[in-house]
Write a structure and sequence with these properties.
The complex is a heterodimer of chains A (268) and B (300). Chain A has 11 helices and no strands. Chain A has a single domain (73-266), classed as MetI-like fold. In chain A, helix 3 crosses helix 6 (141-165), helix 7 (169-176) packs antiparallel against helix 8 and helix 8 (181-210) runs antiparallel to helix 11. Chain A is mainly alpha-helical and 268 residues long. Chain A has helices at 15-36, 53-60, 62-94, 102-114, 117-135, 141-165, 169-176, 181-210, 213-218, 226-233, 240-265. Chain B has 300 residues and is mainly α. Chain B has one domain: MetI-like fold. Classes of the chains: A mainly alpha (268), B mainly alpha (300). Chains A and B meet through helix 1, helix 3, helix 4, helix 5 and helix 6 of A and helix 1, helix 3, helix 4, helix 5 and helix 7 of B. Chain A: The chain crosses the membrane at residues 12-38, 72-92, 104-128, 140-159, 187-209, 244-263. Chain A: Its main location: membrane. Chain A: It is a multi-pass membrane protein.
């Protein structure tokens, strides 16, 4: 190759190959898993023709039904709570100018992103188990509180990004027209902020739905969610039923994510 | 932007509005961490839990063990080998993710703008896919009757399946697989901002490809490299699900060892001390990262 031939940055030697290899490596296992969930055979090792058999079996399994129900109840509560407190915090930290202690607020809010999940899980195990003993309450409340907490940064980040990208002229105009702070928020800020809030809520929902470690440590007996149920199934042989549950959960995540991208793309 | 709010409100509103989030996180995230640190200085309970008596025993036992018969002190080989394995596997994971992640990020950043979003979306899907599901997926590939072995046997490259599952290699493959998107995303952000005319300029000045890579590209995208490596290394070090599923109980990492202390091992103080070690290492590397990146990256 001649020295003065112009340098094509899109074609570094081997880069395209490695990049395409990465994509194949990323998707091959997932595609295999999805493919085998339609296996009509009785074992994961033998292909027994295309069938929805294992989806039907999973859907009729009472443990799976219970776990699915619990997963959704927790994820809905967690995303509502996390999004509410995150919206308030985002308004507090972006609309009030710089104030003392702001860094502290950032650190606390983003803490679940920094601390290894296993450490938080162990901490909550100790903390909640003593509360369980003291109060006798063993309901889903602990899981909902724990999930709400680690979902906060995932809700906070898109909401904060949206707020920072929003023009404050409308809010200032509303205030000039004697709208009360609440009216300004209710009729101006919130509608403009809505795409960010929806995006935040969706991320929080997926994060809660997918959580394994914290749920595993915080749950009381009989409180499996779909991921902890699947983890529990590992002690026995892996069945196509677990593949079917995985694929269903994957479909929900991809659906919510696609909606997330559509919601964030249309910037007002 | 933030100056606009100044006229009509006080900073205390910021605190007031942030209070529900702060309370929630202090109750269910940050606060309990203090309990973990406290527990690491207590005495082990008879069955499980702790006795509220101060003791440095757990911290001693992180590194040393005392012979129950003659009281001689030696290094705790079992603990050290698990810590060493965790560090080794996490570093190897980071290296593999970097080798695959840099070209991938480069590839995405150099696509025409209208296709870039598509390739980026392809990276984001696995990133948001349940970690457990991805771990199950890679298990489908590497188990004895899995895709890889079936393929190799079919083409006569091997006659017996290679046992990968339940080895350190399986954990390494699994972690590199699940954390690869965490490497690609920050690298992409750095390369996307990179001014490709600099390469042209370097090339016009008779720099070789290698010189351009070393003297132009790498120094400029360094913040992205550091961010990607930190983002992969930290979750790898604290990994729990992947080593549990692919390591099969024997090939433990720190995360699984911590769990063992709270479960079967019933030594909560030791588990708490190990958790504190992990916490300090992770927060320490994050601190170093923010120091380094704020000094070197003018874009902040």
């Amino acid at each position: 190759m001649g020295k003065h031939k112009s340098f094509d940055v899109t074609k570094l030697p081997g880069f395209t190959f490695l990049a395409l290899l990465s994509f194949v490596l990323l998707y091959a296992p997932i595609v295999t898993l999805v493919f085998y969930s339609f296996n009509g055979g009785n074992s994961v090792n033998q292909w027994g023709g295309f069938s929805f058999k294992w989806y039907a079996i999973a859907a009729q399994n009472e443990a799976v039904q219970g776990a699915a129900m619990r997963s959704f109840v927790i994820a809905i509560w967690a995303s509502v709570i996390a999004t509410t407190v995150a919206t308030m915090a985002a308004l507090g930290t972006t609309r009030r100018g710089k104030f003392k202690g702001q860094t502290f607020i950032y650190i606390v809010i983003n803490q679940p992103l920094m601390v290894p999940e296993i450490v938080t899980a162990v901490a909550l195990l100790i903390f909640f188990s003593s509360i369980k003993i003291a109060t006798g309450y063993t309901g889903l409340g602990y899981l909902i509180i724990a999930h709400s907490a680690f979902c906060v940064p995932f809700a906070y980040l898109p909401i904060k990004a949206r707020l920072e990208g929003m023009d404050t002229a409308m809010e200032t105009a509303a205030a000039d027209l004697y709208a009360s702070p609440w009216q300004t928020f209710r009729y101006v800020t919130l509608p403009l902020l809505m795409p960010g809030v929806v995006a935040g809520a969706m991320l929080a929902f997926i994060i809660s739905l997918d959580d394994v470690i914290i749920t595993e440590f915080v749950k009381s007996a009989g409180q499996d969610t779909l991921p902890t149920y699947m983890l529990g199934q590992l002690r026995r042989a892996l069945t196509p039923e677990v593949n079917a549950i995985s694929t269903a959960l994957l479909a929900v995540s991809v659906l919510v994510l696609t909606l997330f991208f559509l919601a964030t793309r249309k910037r007002g | 932007m933030s100056a606009l709010g100044k006229g009509r409100s006080k900073g205390s509103n910021g605190w007031l509005l942030s209070m529900p989030a702060l309370l929630l996180l202090l109750v269910a995230a940050s606060g309990p961490l203090l309990i973990v640190v406290t527990y690491s200085f207590l005495e082990k309970g008879d069955y499980s839990g702790v006795r509220w008596i101060f003791s440095g025993d757990a911290w001693f036992r992180v590194l040393f063990q005392k012979d129950i018969f003659d009281g001689t002190v030696s290094l705790a080989d079992a603990n050290l080998s698990i810590i060493w394995r965790s560090v080794k596997l996490s570093l190897s994971t980071t290296v593999i993710a970097f080798v695959l992640g840099l070209p991938t990020a480069w590839f995405i950043a150099t696509r025409p703008p209208k296709y870039r979003a598509f390739w980026l979306f392809l990276i984001t899907i696995p990133f948001w896919t349940n970690l457990l599901i991805r771990t199950f997926a890679i298990m489908e590939v590497i188990r004895n009757q899995g895709l890889l072995n079936t393929f190799l046997i079919h083409y006569g490259l091997i006659s017996e399946p290679i046992q990968i599952l339940y080895t350190d290699t399986a954990v390494l493959i699994g972690m590199a697989y699940v954390y690869l998107p965490l490497m690609v995303l920050p690298l992409f952000a750095a390369i996307d901002r990179f001014d490709f005319r600099l390469i042209e300029a370097g090339y016009d000045l008779y720099a070789s490809r290698l010189q351009i890579l070393r003297r132009v590209i790498l120094p400029i995208i360094r913040p992205g490299i550091v961010a990607g490596c930190i983002l992969v290394f930290i979750p790898s070090l604290g990994a729990y699900v992947t080593p549990r599923v692919l390591g099969g109980g024997k090939n433990m990492m720190i995360g699984n060892f911590i769990e063992l202390q709270f479960g079967q091992g019933q030594n909560w103080p030791l588990g708490a001390a190990l958790s504190t070690v992990l916490l300090v290492v992770v927060l320490g590397s994050l601190l170093i990262y923010t120091r380094v990146s704020s000094r070197e990256d003018p874009h902040g």
